[in-house]
Specification:
Elements: H1 3-11, E1 16-17, H2 23-28, H3 42-45, H4 47-58, E2 64-66, H5 74-79, H6 84-110, E3 129-134, H7 137-141, H8 157-172, E4 178-184, H9 187-199, E5 206-210, H10 224-233, E6 237-243, H11 250-262, E7 272-273, E8 276-277, E9 287-290, E10 297-298, E11 303-304, H12 312-316, H13 319-325, E12 327-330, H14 338-358
Parallel strand pairs: 1-12, 2-3, 3-4, 4-5, 5-6, 6-9, 9-12
Antiparallel strand pairs: 7-8, 10-11
Helix pairs in contact: 4-6, 8-9, 9-10, 10-11
Length: about 350
């Protein structure tokens, strides 16, 4: 596992906090994301909004911020009329903006002597990691197929590797700490990612986060056990889990992922308590969990269906159990907010305090 990730988990008491939804927050700040590039549109239209959202999440307890590159692809930018050079520059810019937000955060910490700053902001020196987002091929298509995993018979593993190759190279060399392969909808794309990481000898670690709509399989219908095994067998992958999936499915999905890990027979667990390793369960890689709010997305209307999700309080009620099951990285995806992340931070901090108090 990455030494940076080990350090982060040690200092966070065993469970680190990932940020929440980016696009929703950009819209709340006034961005118009009705575009095939979605949140990546802001890389050229309003990068200051991306920086502010990253900072909002850091000030509400996030230890890991994910770049605005989920739907940023060279092909997508070229469709908008940008050159190869301009497209590659915007991919690099997504990481630069996150790094700028981290520096702004550290500056705020240095100007504040306590853990709680002005207006209740969480300002404390700690490791903060930047994960460069790599969205699926379906995200580029902007037709909702990252929620079905159905790319048609014409798309092969070779096609997918060729599609992602240059993008992954650029993001890996742009100063990020991790690559986050997000909303992976099928086994084929997981295989393409794993092979690509090896073929290109990518130097920074990665995580794979799959999505599910039934709590058993990934959205394509492929077995989560098989998909998780691909991630588990790749040495470049340091964490594996679930994102953009309703919270109610996460419990069973964590249990399934632990079955994947148990097949190795290696008794190692990266879930820490009180800043030291704990061998209470069997796993070989940290489990990363960042569900959406449970709301339904209408791909044709390109909007979220009203009143189909859960409240923050309902979302947060799951967090302690996810941690107990073995989740080491917990955050939110679509339609979660800085307020959601603050509540996750509070729950995990309270859990750590309770552990310390018992010792």
């Amino acid at each position: 596992m990455s030494s940076l990730l080990v350090d982060l988990l040690r200092q966070s008491g065993g469970t680190a906090v990932i940020d929440g939804g980016l696009a929703t927050e950009l819209e709340r700040h006034g961005a118009d994301l009705n575009d095939p590039l979605w949140s990546a549109k802001c890389l050229f239209s309003s990068p200051h909004l991306i920086r502010q959202v990253h900072l909002d999440y850091l000030e509400n307890g996030a230890d890991i911020i994910i770049t605005a590159s989920y739907q940023a692809t060279i092909q997508g930018f070229k469709d908008k009329g940008y050159t190869d050079e301009e497209s590659e520059a915007m991919l690099r810019r997504s990481v630069e903006i996150a790094r700028e937000a981290r520096e702004l955060y550290y500056k705020g910490c240095s100007e504040c002597c306590s853990g709680d700053g002005a207006e209740g902001k969480i300002l404390k020196q700690r490791p903060i990691l930047i994960a460069a987002s790599v969205g699926s091929y379906g995200a580029y298509l902007a037709d909702g197929s990252e929620y079905s995993g159905d790319y048609g018979d014409a798309i092969t593993k070779t096609n997918l590797k060729d599609f992602h190759r240059r993008r992954v190279q650029i993001l890996a060399d742009s100063g990020a700490d991790l690559l986050a392969f997000e909303t992976v909808p099928n086994k084929l794309e997981a295989e393409a990612y794993a092979e690509l990481l090896e073929e290109e000898d990518i130097k920074i670690p990665a995580w794979f986060a799959f999505n599910s709509k039934d709590g058993v399989n990934v959205v394509s219908g492929d077995s989560l056990l098989e998909c998780g095994s691909i991630a588990e067998s790749c040495n470049k992958v340091v964490a594996v889990g679930i994102n953009c999936t309703p919270p109610r499915f996460i419990h069973d999905l964590i249990v399934l992922l632990k079955k994947v890990f148990n097949r190795t027979g290696i008794a190692v667990n990266f879930s820490l308590t009180h800043k030291r390793f704990n061998s209470s369960s069997v796993t070989t890689k940290p489990i990363v969990i960042y569900p959406n709010s449970g709301e339904t997305y209408d791909a044709e209307l390109k909007q979220w269906v009203q009143n189909t999700g859960v409240t923050d309080e309902h979302f947060i009620s799951y967090v302690t159990k996810w941690r107990e099951l073995g989740a080491s990285l917990v955050g939110g995806c679509c339609r979660t907010t800085p307020a959601t992340i603050r509540k996750i931070y509070n729950v995990l901090s309270s859990s750590e305090s309770a552990i310390v108090g018992k010792e």
